[in-house]
Amino acid sequence: MFWNGVRVAAVTATLLAGSALAAAAQEKLTVGANIGNVPWEFQDDSGNFVGFEIDLVAAVAERLGAEVETVNIPFNGLFSAVQSGRIDIATSSITITDERLQSVSFAQPYYDSDQSLTALATGPKSLAEMKGKVVGVDTGSTGDMWATEHQGQYEFAEIRRYEGLAPAMLDLTAGRIDGYISDIPALQYYVKDKPELAVVERIPTGEKYSMMFAKDAELATQVNAVLDDLKTEGVLAQLHEKWFGVAPDASSSTVTVLPMPSLD
Question: Between 3.30.428.10, 3.10.20.810, 3.40.1190.10, 3.40.190.10, what CATH number should domain 114-206 receive?
Fold first, then answer.
């Protein structure tokens, strides 16, 4: 059997957490990620790729008997990369949406989130104060979608699009934009040691993150089964505590075994 042109060999079913998991080993999983997306995937002081999803992919790959090669791809490029077979898996706090499910597949979600508005501590204190001001977003993200849909309501003067958090934060700090709309966990993590910045408003959207695959890829089903076990065994809960400093909510998708998302 083949995944995206990479030959894989069948391996025997492995008993994990009292249940049989049919796994398949492949030499390498190529994973696309928007590096700089703290705390999901970013570089430490030594240049190593680290983060919640870096650790999670490593745990999944270990169960599948595979090695991981991580490729740095701007967020908006992840969709074409996974669809074309350039990568096997895409991560970067990717929200599951019905629109995306039309052209790609997702494993079950593992994190619940919302959007947020981040600004200078001396700047706007809410979305209502963004009238006539410039807001930044990540190109193609759910923050981009939300800002575009609500531009008329909040009367943003301009929506400026970026390829990742780092350049947006540079412009925000320099005053070239007035606010930045993006996933709240990433921004809460980013600003915690930056008193000049503040997450000023949570924007409820009910988003859930997962790994993304080519449409109907067999790998998606296999990874979904691994996530069943990582949740049941408490591995995901441990990763949540490692990267966010607190245990996940007992009812969250981080610990609750869920079905694969579908349009049915």
Answer: 3.40.190.10
Residue whose pair of structure tokens reads 């508005």 in the numeric block: 117
Question: Could you read off the pLDDT of 176-185 as tens digits, one per residue?
Answer: 999 999 999 9
CB 49 within 8 A of CB 42: yes
- CATH 3.40.190.10 residue ranges in the chain? 2-112+208-244, 114-206
| Beta strands per DSSP E along 102-229 | 104-106, 111-120, 134-138, 158-162, 179-183, 197-214
8 A C-beta contact, residue 234 and residue 240: no
Tell me the one-letter amino acid at 204: P
Whole-angstrom distance, CA of residue 51 vs CA of residue 168: 20
For residues 74 and 84, is the Cβ–Cβ distance under 8 A? Answer: no
pTM over 0.85: no
Whole-angstrom distance, CA of residue 128 vs CA of residue 53:
33
pLDDT band, very low/low/confident/very high, at 22 (cuts 50, 70, 90): very low
pLDDT at 192: 87
